[in-house]
Design brief:
Layout lengths: L4 E9 L2 E6 L3 E6 L1 H11 L3 E6 L11 H8 L7 E4 L5 H10 L3 E4 L1 H5 L1 H11 L4 E10 L2 E6 L4 E4 L2 H8 L5 E6 L12 H5 L7 E4 L5 H8 L4 E6 L9 H7 L16
Parallel strand pairs: 1-4, 1-12, 4-5, 5-6, 6-7, 7-10, 10-11, 11-12
Antiparallel strand pairs: 1-2, 2-3, 7-8, 8-9
Helix pairs in contact: 3-5
Length: about 260
Amino acid sequence: MLKKRLIGVITVKDGRAVQSFGYRRHLPLGRPECLAENLDRWGADEILVLCIDRSSNKLGPDLALVRRLGGLGLSTPLTYGGGIKTADEAVAVIQAGAERICIDATLHDAPQCVREMSAHLGAQALVATVPLCCDDGRLEWFDYRRRTATPLDKASLSLLAEGVVSEAMLIDWRHEGHPQAFDMELVRRFPLDGVPLIVFGGLSDPAQLRQLLGMPRIAAVAVGNFLSYTEHAVQTLKCQLTDLPLRPASYAAAN
Protein backbone atom coordinates (compact mmCIF):
# COMPACT_ATOMS: atom_id res chain seq x y z
CA MET A 1 0.00 0.00 0.00
CA LEU A 2 1.27 3.45 -0.88
CA LYS A 3 2.18 5.60 2.08
CA LYS A 4 0.18 8.76 2.63
CA ARG A 5 1.75 11.97 3.93
CA LEU A 6 1.37 14.51 6.67
CA ILE A 7 2.69 17.80 5.26
CA GLY A 8 3.78 20.68 7.45
CA VAL A 9 2.95 24.07 5.91
CA ILE A 10 4.98 27.22 6.56
CA THR A 11 3.19 30.37 5.41
CA VAL A 12 5.57 33.26 4.69
CA LYS A 13 4.72 36.95 4.33
CA ASP A 14 7.32 39.71 4.05
CA GLY A 15 10.02 37.11 4.60
CA ARG A 16 8.67 35.98 7.99
CA ALA A 17 6.67 32.90 8.91
CA VAL A 18 3.12 33.79 9.93
CA GLN A 19 -0.07 32.22 11.14
CA SER A 20 -2.71 32.75 8.48
CA PHE A 21 -6.45 32.99 9.04
CA GLY A 22 -8.81 32.88 6.08
CA TYR A 23 -6.31 34.45 3.69
CA ARG A 24 -6.90 37.75 5.51
CA ARG A 25 -5.32 37.98 8.96
CA HIS A 26 -1.70 37.13 9.72
CA LEU A 27 0.18 36.86 13.01
CA PRO A 28 3.98 36.59 13.22
CA LEU A 29 5.71 33.33 14.10
CA GLY A 30 9.38 33.99 13.33
CA ARG A 31 12.04 32.77 10.93
CA PRO A 32 10.90 30.18 8.37
CA GLU A 33 14.20 28.33 8.89
CA CYS A 34 13.35 27.62 12.54
CA LEU A 35 9.95 26.18 11.66
CA ALA A 36 11.46 24.07 8.88
CA GLU A 37 14.07 22.61 11.22
CA ASN A 38 11.38 21.75 13.78
CA LEU A 39 9.16 20.05 11.20
CA ASP A 40 12.18 18.12 9.96
CA ARG A 41 13.09 16.91 13.45
CA TRP A 42 9.51 16.05 14.39
CA GLY A 43 8.96 13.73 11.43
CA ALA A 44 6.85 15.64 8.90
CA ASP A 45 6.70 13.79 5.60
CA GLU A 46 7.06 16.96 3.53
CA ILE A 47 7.59 20.66 4.21
CA LEU A 48 5.60 23.09 2.09
CA VAL A 49 6.66 26.75 2.10
CA LEU A 50 4.04 29.13 0.72
CA CYS A 51 5.20 32.71 0.16
CA ILE A 52 1.79 34.34 -0.07
CA ASP A 53 2.85 37.87 -1.09
CA ARG A 54 5.24 37.17 -3.97
CA SER A 55 2.74 37.00 -6.85
CA SER A 56 0.52 39.84 -5.67
CA ASN A 57 3.58 42.09 -5.34
CA LYS A 58 5.09 40.81 -8.60
CA LEU A 59 8.31 39.84 -6.85
CA GLY A 60 8.97 36.43 -8.38
CA PRO A 61 10.00 33.44 -6.26
CA ASP A 62 12.04 34.01 -3.10
CA LEU A 63 15.17 32.19 -4.24
CA ALA A 64 17.21 33.48 -1.32
CA LEU A 65 14.81 31.82 1.13
CA VAL A 66 14.85 28.56 -0.83
CA ARG A 67 18.66 28.59 -0.80
CA ARG A 68 18.72 29.16 2.96
CA LEU A 69 16.29 26.32 3.53
CA GLY A 70 18.17 24.11 1.11
CA GLY A 71 21.37 24.78 3.05
CA LEU A 72 19.93 23.52 6.35
CA GLY A 73 20.59 19.88 5.49
CA LEU A 74 16.94 18.89 5.97
CA SER A 75 16.10 15.24 5.44
CA THR A 76 12.47 16.11 4.69
CA PRO A 77 11.48 16.92 1.08
CA LEU A 78 10.91 20.64 0.50
CA THR A 79 8.17 22.07 -1.72
CA TYR A 80 7.98 25.79 -2.52
CA GLY A 81 5.18 27.99 -3.82
CA GLY A 82 5.01 31.73 -4.45
CA GLY A 83 5.74 34.04 -7.38
CA ILE A 84 6.58 31.35 -9.96
CA LYS A 85 5.34 32.44 -13.38
CA THR A 86 7.74 30.95 -15.94
CA ALA A 87 9.56 27.71 -16.65
CA ASP A 88 12.89 29.43 -16.02
CA GLU A 89 11.72 30.54 -12.57
CA ALA A 90 10.48 27.03 -11.84
CA VAL A 91 13.85 25.54 -12.76
CA ALA A 92 15.63 28.17 -10.64
CA VAL A 93 13.57 27.20 -7.58
CA ILE A 94 14.49 23.54 -8.01
CA GLN A 95 18.14 24.44 -8.51
CA ALA A 96 18.02 26.56 -5.33
CA GLY A 97 17.04 23.54 -3.22
CA ALA A 98 13.35 22.68 -3.53
CA GLU A 99 12.25 19.26 -4.72
CA ARG A 100 8.84 20.37 -5.97
CA ILE A 101 6.97 23.58 -6.70
CA CYS A 102 3.37 24.75 -6.24
CA ILE A 103 1.53 26.64 -8.96
CA ASP A 104 -1.68 28.61 -8.41
CA ALA A 105 -2.36 31.77 -10.41
CA THR A 106 -0.31 30.60 -13.39
CA LEU A 107 -2.77 27.74 -13.90
CA HIS A 108 -5.35 30.34 -14.82
CA ASP A 109 -3.19 33.14 -16.24
CA ALA A 110 -0.80 31.16 -18.44
CA PRO A 111 -1.58 27.42 -18.69
CA GLN A 112 0.98 26.99 -21.46
CA CYS A 113 3.69 28.06 -19.01
CA VAL A 114 2.61 25.23 -16.69
CA ARG A 115 2.98 22.79 -19.56
CA GLU A 116 6.49 24.16 -20.19
CA MET A 117 7.35 23.75 -16.50
CA SER A 118 6.18 20.15 -16.66
CA ALA A 119 8.20 19.53 -19.81
CA HIS A 120 11.35 20.85 -18.14
CA LEU A 121 10.93 19.33 -14.68
CA GLY A 122 8.47 16.48 -15.08
CA ALA A 123 4.94 16.30 -13.71
CA GLN A 124 6.22 14.81 -10.43
CA ALA A 125 7.81 18.17 -9.59
CA LEU A 126 4.58 20.19 -9.94
CA VAL A 127 1.65 20.57 -7.53
CA ALA A 128 -1.44 22.58 -8.49
CA THR A 129 -2.61 24.79 -5.60
CA VAL A 130 -6.36 25.36 -5.80
CA PRO A 131 -7.97 27.65 -3.19
CA LEU A 132 -11.67 26.77 -3.21
CA CYS A 133 -14.98 27.41 -1.56
CA CYS A 134 -18.34 25.76 -2.11
CA ASP A 135 -21.33 28.06 -2.66
CA ASP A 136 -24.76 26.67 -3.51
CA GLY A 137 -23.15 23.36 -4.42
CA ARG A 138 -20.74 25.02 -6.86
CA LEU A 139 -16.95 25.02 -6.48
CA GLU A 140 -15.37 28.45 -6.83
CA TRP A 141 -11.69 29.31 -7.20
CA PHE A 142 -10.40 32.16 -5.05
CA ASP A 143 -7.99 34.61 -6.70
CA TYR A 144 -6.08 35.94 -3.69
CA ARG A 145 -4.56 38.79 -5.73
CA ARG A 146 -7.92 40.31 -6.62
CA ARG A 147 -9.88 38.91 -3.66
CA THR A 148 -12.50 37.46 -6.00
CA ALA A 149 -14.11 34.02 -6.25
CA THR A 150 -15.23 32.68 -9.62
CA PRO A 151 -16.55 29.28 -10.78
CA LEU A 152 -13.78 26.70 -11.17
CA ASP A 153 -13.16 26.91 -14.89
CA LYS A 154 -13.06 23.99 -17.31
CA ALA A 155 -9.74 25.13 -18.79
CA SER A 156 -7.95 24.69 -15.45
CA LEU A 157 -9.61 21.33 -14.87
CA SER A 158 -8.58 20.20 -18.34
CA LEU A 159 -4.99 21.21 -17.58
CA LEU A 160 -5.01 19.10 -14.41
CA ALA A 161 -6.60 16.20 -16.26
CA GLU A 162 -3.76 16.25 -18.80
CA GLY A 163 -1.38 14.99 -16.13
CA VAL A 164 1.03 17.93 -16.31
CA VAL A 165 1.02 18.10 -12.50
CA SER A 166 1.42 15.26 -10.03
CA GLU A 167 -1.14 16.37 -7.42
CA ALA A 168 -3.71 19.06 -6.72
CA MET A 169 -3.84 20.74 -3.31
CA LEU A 170 -7.39 21.75 -2.44
CA ILE A 171 -7.29 24.67 0.01
CA ASP A 172 -10.33 25.58 2.06
CA TRP A 173 -9.33 29.23 2.09
CA ARG A 174 -12.34 30.45 4.06
CA HIS A 175 -11.61 28.14 6.98
CA GLU A 176 -7.83 28.30 6.85
CA GLY A 177 -6.50 28.70 10.38
CA HIS A 178 -9.80 27.80 12.06
CA PRO A 179 -9.90 24.54 14.05
CA GLN A 180 -11.91 21.54 12.83
CA ALA A 181 -13.40 23.60 10.01
CA PHE A 182 -12.34 21.98 6.71
CA ASP A 183 -15.30 21.73 4.32
CA MET A 184 -15.55 18.12 3.13
CA GLU A 185 -17.73 19.24 0.21
CA LEU A 186 -14.57 20.48 -1.53
CA VAL A 187 -13.37 16.89 -1.85
CA ARG A 188 -16.77 15.40 -2.58
CA ARG A 189 -17.46 17.86 -5.40
CA PHE A 190 -14.01 18.03 -6.96
CA PRO A 191 -14.67 16.47 -10.37
CA LEU A 192 -11.32 14.87 -11.28
CA ASP A 193 -11.14 11.37 -9.80
CA GLY A 194 -7.79 10.57 -11.41
CA VAL A 195 -5.82 13.42 -9.80
CA PRO A 196 -4.28 12.64 -6.37
CA LEU A 197 -5.33 15.27 -3.85
CA ILE A 198 -3.69 17.11 -0.96
CA VAL A 199 -6.12 18.88 1.37
CA PHE A 200 -5.36 21.95 3.48
CA GLY A 201 -7.18 24.57 5.52
CA GLY A 202 -8.91 24.18 8.87
CA LEU A 203 -7.49 20.72 9.53
CA SER A 204 -6.68 20.11 13.19
CA ASP A 205 -8.89 17.27 14.37
CA PRO A 206 -7.43 13.73 14.19
CA ALA A 207 -10.89 12.31 13.44
CA GLN A 208 -11.24 14.42 10.31
CA LEU A 209 -7.65 13.69 9.28
CA ARG A 210 -8.47 10.00 9.64
CA GLN A 211 -11.57 10.37 7.49
CA LEU A 212 -9.67 12.17 4.76
CA LEU A 213 -6.66 9.86 4.76
CA GLY A 214 -9.04 6.93 4.45
CA MET A 215 -10.25 8.22 1.07
CA PRO A 216 -8.42 6.59 -1.85
CA ARG A 217 -8.09 9.88 -3.76
CA ILE A 218 -6.39 11.69 -0.85
CA ALA A 219 -2.59 11.41 -1.05
CA ALA A 220 -1.77 13.78 1.80
CA VAL A 221 -3.14 16.12 4.44
CA ALA A 222 -1.43 19.46 5.03
CA VAL A 223 -1.47 21.26 8.38
CA GLY A 224 -0.16 24.75 9.07
CA ASN A 225 -1.02 26.83 12.14
CA PHE A 226 -1.91 23.88 14.34
CA LEU A 227 1.60 22.43 14.15
CA SER A 228 2.95 25.64 15.71
CA TYR A 229 0.85 25.68 18.88
CA THR A 230 2.49 22.75 20.69
CA GLU A 231 5.89 21.13 20.51
CA HIS A 232 6.08 17.76 18.72
CA ALA A 233 2.60 18.31 17.19
CA VAL A 234 3.52 16.15 14.19
CA GLN A 235 4.34 13.24 16.47
CA THR A 236 1.16 13.72 18.45
CA LEU A 237 -1.01 13.62 15.35
CA LYS A 238 0.78 10.61 13.89
CA CYS A 239 0.48 8.68 17.15
CA GLN A 240 -3.29 9.10 16.89
CA LEU A 241 -3.28 7.78 13.31
CA THR A 242 -1.03 4.74 13.72
CA ASP A 243 -3.40 2.37 11.90
CA LEU A 244 -3.25 4.43 8.70
CA PRO A 245 -0.57 4.09 5.97
CA LEU A 246 1.53 6.96 7.31
CA ARG A 247 5.25 6.92 8.00
CA PRO A 248 5.61 6.38 11.78
CA ALA A 249 6.10 9.33 14.07
CA SER A 250 9.74 10.13 14.69
CA TYR A 251 11.77 12.68 16.56
CA ALA A 252 15.37 13.78 16.17
CA ALA A 253 16.87 15.77 19.01
CA ALA A 254 18.31 19.17 18.20
CA ASN A 255 22.08 19.37 18.04
